[in-house]
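U., I forgot to send this yesterday:
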Amino acid sequence: MNLKDRYLVYQTKRGNPEAYAKIYDKYLDKIYRFIFFRIDSQERAEDLSSQVFLKTLEYIGDQTRTIDNLQALLYQTARNLVIDFYRGKGKEVSLKVGDGRLEVRDEKNTTEDLIEGIDAKLDLKKIEKALRGIKDEYREVIILYYLEEMSVGEIARILGKKEGNVRVLVHRGLKALREWLSSRGATEPRTFEKSAGGGSDEGSRSMFSNRGYR
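Result:
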């Protein structure tokens, strides 16, 4: 957890409402986007986003609890609320990847192969529709990795998975997204210039910038 978040958590525990207001302002759009792309309802996404911050405030306010990573706590809370939402609707949400023993050989190269020759002109609305067309477990990591620009390690912490499994999900998510677009004759975006496999977490994720979704 960075120093600023650590300080805001500390001040919130001391009952400083302005500190939590800063946490809210810093993370609201990110949490909303994460939920919105998984629930096809702006109203419901707004409602669940509010619940995330209420539950997180209660968690921080519990003096017996230690907060190691504020961002992870917020996303874990959001993820659990989305799961509860779908369970309440009687819809099963798949959140596992195989049996945990999968391996990807030279994943950096295979991911780059997936994106070779992709056009950069796809409408953001088509990206949004495409994300809704793939499995929840893939959509989840694509949002975190490309939209929120998190590292594999950060995503692994939020999802409670090993980093290797997260890389598998990113790879499969890219493939599923590409296949969804191709099956509908869409022009595919050159979005995924950053590989999840073993290299730097820096790189362009231009079509999944943090602007234009709220």
